Amino acid sequence: MTRKACPAFWGGVFLATVMIPGCRSPSNGQQSAVPVVTGVTVEMVQLRETPEVYEAVGTVRSATSSVLAAQISGTVREIRVKTGDRVHQGQLLALLDDRSPRAQLGVAEAGVEESAQGMAEVEQALQAATADRAFAEVTYRRYQDLLAKNSVSRQEFDGAEARYKAAVAQEAALAAKKKQMAAREQQAKSQQQSAQALFSYSRVVSPIDGVVTAKPVDAGTVVMPGTPILTVEDTAHYRLEASLPEGFLAKVRVGQTVTATTAHGDFEGRVVEIVPTADTASRTFVVKVELPDDCGCRSGEYGKALFPVGHERRLTVPRSSLVERGQLEGLFVVNSQGVVEYRLVKTGKNLGDRVEILSGLTDGERVATSQADRLSDGVRVETR
């Protein structure tokens, strides 16, 4: 070995001496410890008896909806409201041409007045006839006594008797005429009432307090009896009309309390009516659920109701234990050594604050129900 080669040789030896210690495995004392998360709550999953509910969809409708249709034929002269206007009971909403019913009412009122005058005349005549009959009767009785004493002739007695019988007949005739006039007066009054009703049909008034929801005609439209003019809905009371399959109908009863959901939230509703006939296409029955007065609902809104139809054993976990990663759902399962494993699961129905687990978990396993943001695979937990 020459002198010039010696520095290179000793440099390589030094480099090897430095590198060899770097290839050694770390000692046991330098190994990283398994992370531990304390204070984690854990629940053992068990099959639970849970109520079986059917979610029926439906439509929110007003409890009272009045379609105001024409009851006479004629031309719409004026409509005083528009869609969305609030109205009160008895308010005049529309007018129809009333010339014909007004004329009929005038004729009927004239008939009532005429019959009343005729009745007054008959009553006066009857009173006079009654007085004549009473006088003739007294005269006739006196003549009977005088004839028995031979104080009057037979001819004079026969005259008194004839006048008495004529007075009785006149009184009876006028009494019969009074009954006839009373019947005519009653007929005239009935015709007057009919004409008044016909005249009232030319004035369309609101039967309830509510809001105008439809106005299918305008002023100038010729309508026939039955033609809708306006629709007024009660805005204080609403119902959810939900469709229920016929297989569950026997498990629903009037007065039952159910949970109803609309765009305005969840409410406690009450079954107030079950329509007894089924829809032939869907084989479903309509069940009407009364909603609270303060639900803020509007007719036509979407809604649903949960009807209890039985019980079923399900595997459930608290909703707080679910961990979403993208579009996947999973749980942190804790084994007997306290080590965490993230496991994907398939969820089922929502049961309030709990969720049904269809697959990925078995009865008796434990899941972490808190501090999910601090957990990951392989972490050890200390429960509380």
List the helices and strands and how they pair.
Elements: H1 6-22, E1 36-40, E2 42-44, E3 47-62, E4 65-69, E5 74-79, E6 86-87, E7 92-96, H2 99-148, H3 154-200, E8 203-205, E9 210-214, E10 222-223, E11 228-233, E12 238-245, E13 257-262, E14 265-274, E15 284-290, E16 302-318, E17 323-325, E18 328-334, E19 340-344, E20 346-351, E21 354-359, E22 366-368, E23 380-383
Parallel strand pairs: 1-23
Antiparallel strand pairs: 2-22, 3-12, 3-16, 4-11, 5-7, 5-10, 6-9, 7-8, 9-11, 12-15, 13-14, 13-16, 14-15, 16-21, 17-18, 18-19, 18-22, 20-21
Protein architecture, described:
By secondary structure, this protein is α+β, with helices and mostly antiparallel strands. It has four domains: 37-50 and 314-383, conserved putative lor/sdh protein from methanococcus maripaludis s2 fold (Beta Barrel); 53-62 and 235-311, Beta Barrel (Elongation Factor Tu (Ef-tu), domain 3); 67-97 and 202-233, Beta Barrel (OB fold (Dihydrolipoamide Acetyltransferase, E2P)); 99-199, Helix hairpin bin (Helix Hairpins), CATH 1.10.287.470. Strands 3-12-15-14-13-16 form a six-stranded antiparallel β-barrel. Strands 2, 17, 18, 19 and 22 form a five-stranded antiparallel sheet that branches. It has a four-stranded antiparallel sheet with strand order 4-11-9-6, with no helix packed on it. Helix 2 (99-148) packs antiparallel against helix 3 (154-200). It is 30% helix and 36% strand. Strand 17 (323-325) and strand 18 form a beta hairpin.
